[in-house]
Design goal:
This protein is mostly helical. The protein has 2 domains: 33 residues, no CATH class; 76 residues, no CATH class. 51% of the residues lie in helices and 0% in strands. It has 5 helices and no strands. The chain is elongated, with a radius of gyration of 24 Å. The protein starts with 15 loop residues before the first helix and ends in a 9-residue tail after the last helix.
Amino acid sequence: MSGRRVIGMRRGERHERYEAIERIRGYPMSNVAAALPRKSMTKPERQLLQVLADQLLGSKSGSAVMATMLVLLASWMGSPSTLGFEDFARRWLAEGNAKDKAAEQVLKDVFGLVPPEAV
Protein backbone atom coordinates (compact mmCIF):
# COMPACT_ATOMS: atom_id res chain seq x y z
CA MET A 1 0.00 0.00 0.00
CA SER A 2 2.72 2.54 -0.91
CA GLY A 3 3.55 3.72 2.61
CA ARG A 4 -0.01 4.70 3.61
CA ARG A 5 -1.71 2.73 6.32
CA VAL A 6 -5.41 2.27 6.84
CA ILE A 7 -6.29 2.95 10.46
CA GLY A 8 -6.73 -0.28 12.37
CA MET A 9 -4.67 -2.37 9.92
CA ARG A 10 -1.29 -3.85 10.63
CA ARG A 11 1.51 -3.55 8.14
CA GLY A 12 1.27 -6.34 5.57
CA GLU A 13 -2.50 -6.78 5.82
CA ARG A 14 -4.56 -6.12 2.73
CA HIS A 15 -7.79 -4.22 2.70
CA GLU A 16 -10.80 -6.37 1.79
CA ARG A 17 -11.84 -3.85 -0.90
CA TYR A 18 -8.57 -4.40 -2.74
CA GLU A 19 -9.01 -8.14 -2.50
CA ALA A 20 -12.54 -7.89 -3.95
CA ILE A 21 -11.28 -5.78 -6.86
CA GLU A 22 -8.49 -8.25 -7.53
CA ARG A 23 -11.00 -11.14 -7.64
CA ILE A 24 -13.13 -9.23 -10.17
CA ARG A 25 -10.17 -8.21 -12.32
CA GLY A 26 -8.43 -11.54 -12.09
CA TYR A 27 -5.03 -9.97 -11.41
CA PRO A 28 -3.47 -8.06 -8.51
CA MET A 29 -3.85 -4.31 -8.14
CA SER A 30 -0.72 -2.31 -8.62
CA ASN A 31 0.28 1.33 -8.66
CA VAL A 32 2.56 0.72 -11.62
CA ALA A 33 1.23 1.65 -15.06
CA ALA A 34 2.98 1.05 -18.37
CA ALA A 35 4.57 4.20 -19.69
CA LEU A 36 3.65 4.39 -23.35
CA PRO A 37 4.59 7.33 -25.52
CA ARG A 38 1.73 9.71 -26.15
CA LYS A 39 0.98 10.06 -29.84
CA SER A 40 -0.41 13.20 -31.39
CA MET A 41 -0.35 14.57 -34.90
CA THR A 42 0.80 18.07 -35.64
CA LYS A 43 -1.58 20.51 -37.33
CA PRO A 44 0.19 20.23 -40.74
CA GLU A 45 -0.02 16.42 -40.55
CA ARG A 46 -3.75 16.56 -39.83
CA GLN A 47 -4.23 19.02 -42.70
CA LEU A 48 -2.24 16.72 -44.99
CA LEU A 49 -4.66 13.88 -44.26
CA GLN A 50 -7.68 16.11 -44.85
CA VAL A 51 -6.37 17.47 -48.17
CA LEU A 52 -5.31 14.00 -49.28
CA ALA A 53 -8.77 12.61 -48.50
CA ASP A 54 -10.46 15.45 -50.42
CA GLN A 55 -8.20 15.07 -53.47
CA LEU A 56 -8.49 11.28 -53.59
CA LEU A 57 -12.27 11.25 -53.28
CA GLY A 58 -12.88 10.99 -57.03
CA SER A 59 -9.59 9.34 -57.95
CA LYS A 60 -9.45 5.86 -59.47
CA SER A 61 -7.01 4.54 -56.85
CA GLY A 62 -8.23 6.86 -54.08
CA SER A 63 -9.85 4.18 -51.97
CA ALA A 64 -6.72 2.01 -52.07
CA VAL A 65 -4.53 4.97 -51.09
CA MET A 66 -6.81 5.91 -48.18
CA ALA A 67 -6.99 2.27 -47.03
CA THR A 68 -3.18 2.12 -47.06
CA MET A 69 -3.06 5.43 -45.20
CA LEU A 70 -5.38 4.01 -42.52
CA VAL A 71 -3.14 0.94 -42.15
CA LEU A 72 -0.15 3.29 -41.84
CA LEU A 73 -1.95 5.39 -39.24
CA ALA A 74 -2.96 2.31 -37.24
CA SER A 75 0.62 1.02 -37.39
CA TRP A 76 1.92 4.34 -36.08
CA MET A 77 -0.63 4.46 -33.26
CA GLY A 78 0.14 0.86 -32.26
CA SER A 79 3.90 1.29 -32.41
CA PRO A 80 5.88 2.00 -29.26
CA SER A 81 8.13 4.25 -31.36
CA THR A 82 8.54 7.87 -30.33
CA LEU A 83 8.86 9.03 -33.94
CA GLY A 84 6.45 11.60 -35.27
CA PHE A 85 3.88 10.53 -37.85
CA GLU A 86 5.74 11.90 -40.87
CA ASP A 87 9.06 10.25 -39.96
CA PHE A 88 7.30 6.99 -39.11
CA ALA A 89 5.42 7.11 -42.44
CA ARG A 90 8.64 7.58 -44.42
CA ARG A 91 10.28 4.62 -42.71
CA TRP A 92 7.13 2.52 -43.01
CA LEU A 93 6.97 3.16 -46.76
CA ALA A 94 10.72 2.68 -47.24
CA GLU A 95 10.44 -0.76 -45.59
CA GLY A 96 7.80 -1.75 -48.16
CA ASN A 97 4.87 -2.21 -45.78
CA ALA A 98 2.29 -0.91 -48.28
CA LYS A 99 0.48 -3.82 -49.94
CA ASP A 100 -0.88 -1.93 -52.99
CA LYS A 101 1.84 -0.74 -55.41
CA ALA A 102 -0.20 2.15 -56.84
CA ALA A 103 -1.04 3.39 -53.34
CA GLU A 104 2.60 3.01 -52.34
CA GLN A 105 3.72 5.23 -55.24
CA VAL A 106 1.16 7.92 -54.40
CA LEU A 107 2.14 7.92 -50.72
CA LYS A 108 5.85 7.96 -51.52
CA ASP A 109 5.18 11.02 -53.67
CA VAL A 110 3.17 12.66 -50.87
CA PHE A 111 5.90 12.04 -48.27
CA GLY A 112 8.74 13.05 -50.60
CA LEU A 113 10.32 9.64 -51.10
CA VAL A 114 10.23 9.73 -54.89
CA PRO A 115 13.52 10.93 -56.42
CA PRO A 116 13.19 14.18 -58.47
CA GLU A 117 14.13 12.50 -61.77
CA ALA A 118 11.35 9.91 -61.33
CA VAL A 119 8.62 12.57 -61.08
